[in-house]
Amino acid sequence: MENKLLIYAVGGMGNRFNSIINGMYLNDIYFKGEIILYWPNEETCDCKFTDLFEPPTNVTVINTLDNLNMDLFPIYGKYSDTRPEVTPVVGGFEGLMKDNMQYPNNIATVTDTPHRNISEEYKSKILKTFIPIKHIKDEVNIFCKNNNINSKTLGLHIRRTDGQSLLGKTDSHFENKIKNHPKTNIFICSDDYQTEIYFKSLFIDKVFFREKKSYTEKIHKGPWNNARVFDKEKNKETVVKFNVKISKQAVIDGLIDILILSKTNFNKSKSTFCQTAWYLKEK
Can you give the pLDDT at residue 163? Predict the structure, then answer.
């Protein structure tokens, strides 16, 4: 029986893409087995893989681990401290990247930080093998045609899940960007509707955005990550690692924005959202 590589794609959509890139690189260069992609529905990405992409020909996609004997899949990577189902982790993902390594028959990987050996070209190649479903492609094409979005358009991703800090930037930063491109139309995408409306009101004839049907929501008051929440049952304060709820529609709308952004002139950033758009960009 052929060896199997199980890729945990968990967390937000961009993090899942990084996990896929890592796993497929490991398989192409070293392990060379059958690939199973575990893409679960959860609050950080409540959407099936096939709600976004056509079924891939070289990967088996699953939404649950119920039909797998996980005792046969030693896990390499991280997350055992924050995800109880990812346990025990028996080794680091880094340790798998070795020539002539004696691999077990099956391996599970869980890591969303791109390995340093993986080139930009390879990341792009992997993500472009996944074909968006027709509805998503049509939405992208119609929006770009109706709003004259192309490689000359300035694309701006305005992240507001974590406010104007961490991976976000201040409103004034983006206002200056727009003012510095007086003859260019602007495409903005944000996880916050009020932010999109605000910039449209300032530059009504220059700024275009796609009003999404659903946006990222917070589960509790507080920051998007490591929110401190009082647990009434335990009568104590606990820490919520990922304080976000991203519905199926919000994930779909997010992918549409990524694909539109990829057709514009934009800057790559540390955000996995922008990185995904960068890898999908036609170079």
Answer: 55
122-129 long-range contacts, Cβ below 8 Å, gap at least 24?
A: 122/21, 122/25, 123/21, 123/279, 124/279, 124/280, 124/281, 124/283, 126/20, 126/21, 126/24, 126/25, 126/279, 127/17, 127/20, 127/21, 127/276, 127/279, 127/280, 128/279, 128/280, 129/56
Q: What is the dihedral of CA 217, 219, 223, 224, to 10 degrees?
A: -60
- Residue range 56-82, pLDDT digits in tens: 999 999 999 999 999 999 999 988 777
d(CA 209, CA 143) in angstroms, rounded, equals 9
Question: What value does the mean pLDDT of the chain take?
Answer: 91
Q: How far is CA 267 from CA 47, 60, 93, 175, 270, in A?
A: 27, 34, 29, 15, 10
| Whole-structure pTM value | 0.92
> How far apart (Å, rounded) are the C-alpha atoms in residues 268 and 205?
25
* Whether pLDDT at 1 is above 50: no
Q: Is the pLDDT reported for residue 130 higher than 90? A: yes
96: closest CA among 113, 80, 109? 109
Would you place residue 194 in the very low, low, confident or very high pLDDT band (cuts 50, 70, 90)? very high
**C-alpha separations of 251 from 52, 172, 193 in Å:** 8, 28, 15
Q: Are 137 and 263 in contact (CB under 8 A)?
A: no
In degrees, to the nearest 5, what angle opens at C-alpha 143 toward C-alphas 141 and 145? 65
Task: Tell me the sheet residues that pair with 154.
Answer: 186, 265
